[in-house]
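URGENT: need a sanity check before tomorrow's submission.

F., can you look over the non-specific serine/threonine protein kinase record below? I want to be sure the sequence and structure line up before it goes out.
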Amino acid sequence: MINGMVGDRYRLQERLGRGGTATVWRGVDIDTGEPVAVKVLDAALASRPVMVERLRREAEAVARLAHPNIVAARDAGIGHDATYLAMELVDGPTVADLLTSGGPLPVEQAITIAEQVCAALSAAHAAGVIHRDIKPGNLIVDRTGVVKVCDFGIAQLRTRDAQAALTGPSEAVGTCEYMAPEQANGEPIDARTDLYSLGCVLYAMLTGHPPFLEQTAIAVMHQHLHRLPAPVRTVRPDVPAELDELIGRLLAKRARDRPNTATEARARLTAIRTAPTGAGPLPATMAGLSPTTAVLARPSGRRRAAARGVSPRWSAARDGLARWWLSVVAAAVVLATAVTVTAVVVGRDPSGHPAPVAAAPTPAVEAAPPAASTPAEQAPTTAATPAPARTGPATVIDRLAALAGTVQEQVDAGALTAEAGRDLVRQIGEAAVAVQAGKADKGVKKLREVDKRLAELRRDGKLTAAGFAALDVVAPIIAALR
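Structure tokens as predicted:
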């Protein structure tokens, strides 16, 4: 870069943003007078062939794609002064900016943005380009509401030299919070990989928060591989059930359980946006896994603090996750979903939570038949009522959530068998349902069953003395209900 010029053609005027490897500038094409965005590779990286090749491939990828929802490339250059990519300048914020400044987006706006991203992905995939880094920061919304997908820097091209990969066979490339499980594992990817990332973006647009937040990138990727995110409607009850279900399909762990194409996903989004308004039943499970109880991961540490897009509304909702978990368990009880261990509030594994291990599901009770697009192994959704209001005593609901968390702690510590822990969590969930429905007497009855079961487990050697002491708090909860 000499005197603010690159490529003897582009005068840099204002720095727009900076990524991990390059800086994006607002500039002007001195030959035409048109404004441009110029992505300049950091000088320290310009001597690395792999980084230069990535920029070249980005230029090649975008050059293939002439689409109104994709930022257009104008020129690329590799020279002694700078290695750069000149692009269309889009005047508007990124989706990440919108989340940071205003929190979760209105449902219709989120759907409209996702529809346009699907249109861009359809064009990219048809041209043999997999983006691999769909995230809020790579989606720009111009002043007229048109969405532009940018940053194809790590895109994978299906070309004759596709074997000349820029990453190792097991190297994960992308942004961890929006990374598909196959990316995290360094496995082969396809168009459905971008659809998983789109599901994460939809989740973030509606909640202000990606599906998983943890303290380290490894912990986040572990969640993508092994965890179910909380259904969106546990945080945003105004989200249509059909949209929540679609997000569940997009976030399926196995690619074959996601929509097959971006065109299919876009058609579904359009149908949801144009359908009569009105929220349907809260789904009990997310798509794409063997039946398990949905786990509400609690963001903590640095990554929780880094969630700058979280609005006060989301913060309040997050504080109530323990209570909403009880609703999720209640739906799982109706479905008679069986798991080896159900995580509630606390637990331990590399990400800070125990990995759920699915056992053989028991027959579903009064469950609606699965939709035609639902995989055969997926637990059918139930016509449960929307998440109930907090009608029971606040302290009781909180104490029930804490009790369920203590059950999990005892399972983790080896003080309680996994099977017994599963049954206790189910019984606590049933009690919570009764309390939230204002049926205190029924809640007392269920809790007495829990108390009796604890004594039986201690007698039969399935619960240690220390575990029993930790869980011997049922009587005070019963007293609070009477």
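My own read: Residues 95-297 form a domain with the Transferase(Phosphotransferase); domain 1 fold (CATH 1.10.510.10). The first strand starts at residue 5 and ends at 6. If you see anything odd, call me.
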